[in-house]
Amino acid sequence: MRFGHFDDRKREYVITQPNTPLPWINYLGCESYFGLISNTAGGYSFYRDARLRRLTRYRYNNAPFDFGGRYLYLRDNDTGKFWSPSWQPTRTKLDKYECRHGMGYTLIGSSCHQIEAQTCYFVPMGETLEIWKFQVTNRRKKPARLSVFSSIEFCLWDAQDDATNFQRNFSTGQVEIVDGVIYHKTEYRERRNHFAYFACSEKLAGFDTQRDTFLGAYRSWDNPAAVEQGKSFDSVAHGWAPLGSHHVKVNLKPGETKEIIFVLGYHENPVDKKFDPPDSQTINKKTVQPVIAKYLDCQNVAAAFQTLRENWDGLLGVYQVQSPDVHANRMVNIWNAYQCMATFNMSRSASFYESGIGRGLGFRDSNQDLLGFVQMVPARARERILDIAATQLKSGGAFHQYQPLTKRGNNDIGSGFNDDPHWLILGVAAYLKETGDWSILDEPVQFENEPGSEQPLYEHLRCSFNYTLERIGPHGLPLIGRADWNDCLNLNCFSDTPGQSFQTTTNKDGTTAESVFIAGLFVMAGKELAAIAKRRRQNTEAERCLAETAKMEKVIYRHGWDGDWFIRAYDDFSKPIGSKVCKEGKIFIESQGMCIMAGIGLKDGKAKLALDSVNQHLATKHGIVLQQPAFTKYYIEMGEISSYPPGYKENAGIFCHNNPWIIISETMVGNGNRAFDYYTRINPSARENIGELHRCEPYVFAQMIAGRDAPTHGEAKNSWLTGTAAWTYFTITQWILGIRTDYDGLRVDPVIPAKWKGFTVTRRFRGNTYAIEVKNPKGKQRGVKKLLVNGKEIAGNLLPVRPPQSKPIQVEAVLEG
Ligand code: GLC
Ligand code: GLC
Which ligand sits closest to the CA of 640? Predict the structure, then answer.
């Protein structure tokens, strides 16, 4: 069953019934002001940091699941009937409902009692505010006398404190109401120089700023007293729970439309100009008034919306494909790229499954996210790389997470995740291949954010590589530390105490448990580092890297190969994990993908063998599960992985993040049919028809789909903020469609289903646009045999870098392999 459809031309997903299985959300904002918005206008907003600068309050895991947001109410003043044009919170039956999630905006429209309403929510580029453009039309044959009420609940800034510290918070709330603008100024009297405001373009019939007055005792958002009575109380919040609500009366002739603009914003004043007059406690509004005035004007709002659209045209224009597969096309051209930008902006902080107070930016996550957005925002990718690298430890290791506002390593989770440093090499490699900006390697970058500790970025990469060489276990494989990519494979933890963190509890000295996955990652990263060193003419260094990776490959063959697949790890007793000798967890996905991507087993058939084992033991129709058989009980020597019921998360769930590793591996052995089949199994667009089972949004990837051991096999969870976004994008664009960035140019190496007759891609790359047509007359899966550039045949499959020219470069590639 479907709950909507794609409108690819407008780049929108259209939800046609409000009661989707889970809230289907979108993001507003792409610079410093952000909002989450559901298909029924639920969600919240924040400035830069979802925990420390939260503008509006939101209660997670609510009932209904999504309750609280940017709610408007319409009231018919003749009958006293009222409803929400976004369905929630009153959930009144609507005659028509449509939510269009687009690129950085959401439109929610509906019709009830012959009154049509539509709200467009978006954040103008360059501003720290959001706009709700509300239009209401009278479709009756007689005049309508209506009231419009707005409502948002202010958060007292620190979302964590806001949800816990009530003995203080119920006494600190403060507001000002001036010229119809509601200013939220809690803690402005003391150390904050920022405030929030909520403005309306119309003359007000009234307002409210005290939540419990607006709602009335023992009432909720579905029947606020003010809305029911058609009259605001003009309440002024002193303590308790400040809210912003405007009341506007609208009389409409038959057919008449009225537009009302609401502006919700964040504003900072210079510390010495906080008050006006200076010796008062009144907010200095001179700095914010021009901004408010600008966006209460319809024409400025329309222009800002246009600018937002053009911004997305630019970002998405970097890579556009026309292939025979509609699902691949719309994910590449629109939604997957869009999701990659969300992971760039949010990392793992704020979604409907990440509460915005928990995780900062992950060292490994942020480096992998780069793979998905570096082509759209190379300058910001550069900055991100330098920020991440500055949190690297002097040991070459990494803080597992860092805070976006301070950009400093975060000691809550600490370090010792022994895969972390290698992702920096891969992130930088992706940046170099995209941009050719070799200067980044000479940038001085601190260690542990310590002034004076600066070394060129290139040295950081060497430290990352050496980190593993200094941490080798009994089999010659890398020691795993607290965990490798799989945060839940905690082989040194041995926790028997409820509530202990599996990631930070360490009861073993860490000198025994080893990871075959890190071994593969080390080989992959080492080869990249060698390629980088070579281009910097550091040949000895390049040779050293290759010698070490060759040595590690041998170890993997000796101690990391189980006969039909790669072993996953060795535990603290030096017993293998992910081997035939195990009772549960005999085969894992991660080491297969990582070792093959590193090139191991490609020549001697081991890669193919391992991939066939994956196909046989791990592949399901909903995607590839993480391991089999699932762990049916808690194993103290393995940690969190065995804490999940079978089929969920890392315990044999379909952890979508690592499915692309198998897909890339399949392309490396030339199996285009299987690669694309696996890709389609987790592609949300291709799963749109099973919306009732899948439940999450059909336009973005989810972190997890329940595995075959779960009673809910096929159900997705944790949509939006997942490494799946970058990895699927990277996989389809660079490995299946095969238009792949490389240090010295753009490679054309598609590995596609045999039944595809061809496809076209336009790719902007280093100042040129390439218009690429791939032809597949003989039904092959791989092998470019002829490559024409502007009509001239060239040898090989690499398009060399050229000086920028105004006309697109025409490329024709024929598969005959
Ligand atoms: C989550 C984490 C990521 C980790 C993965 C597997 O996605 O953000 O860092 O690799 O889980 O445990
Ligand atoms: C990853 C895992 C999650 C685990 C967390 C710990 O996100 O997916 O299950 O709790 O890491 O950091």
Answer: 2
Angstrom distance (rounded) from CA 93 to CA 192: 43
Residue 756: HSE in the Cβ half-sphere, 13 Å Cα cutoff:
26
Measure 488 CA to ligand 2 centroid, in angstroms.
6
In angstroms, the CA 813 to CA 772 distance is 7
Strand, coil or helix: 501 = coil
What pLDDT is recorded for position 407? 81
Angle (deg, nearest 10), helices 516-535 and 457-469: 140
Confidence (pLDDT) at 360: 73
**Which residues form ligand 2's pocket by a CB distance below 6 Å?**
487-488, 503, 649
Cα–Cα distance, 56 to 197 (Å, whole number): 11
pLDDT at 817: 61
Residue 403 scores a pLDDT above 80: no
What is the C-alpha to C-alpha distance for residues 693 and 190, in angstroms, rounded to an integer? 51
Residue type, 424: L
Helices 363-373 and 420-435: crossing angle in degrees, nearest 10, is: 20
- Which residue do the tokens 């300058």 mark? 379
In angstroms, what is the C-alpha Rg of the chain? 28
Active-site residue identified among 365, 369, 487, 562:
487
pLDDT in tens, 786-796: 999 999 999 99
Q: How far apart are CA 784 and CA 787, in angstroms?
A: 7
**Helix, strand counts (H, E) of the chain:** 20, 43
- The number of the ligand 1 atom at minimal distance from the alpha carbon of 650 is 12
Distance of alpha carbon 102 from the chain centroid: 16
How far apart CA 668 and CA 73 sit, in angstroms, is 56
CA-nearest residue for atom 6, ligand 1, is 486
Q: Which two tokens stand for residue 772?
A: 């690429």
Active site residue 487: yes
Q: Is the pLDDT of residue 399 over 90?
A: no
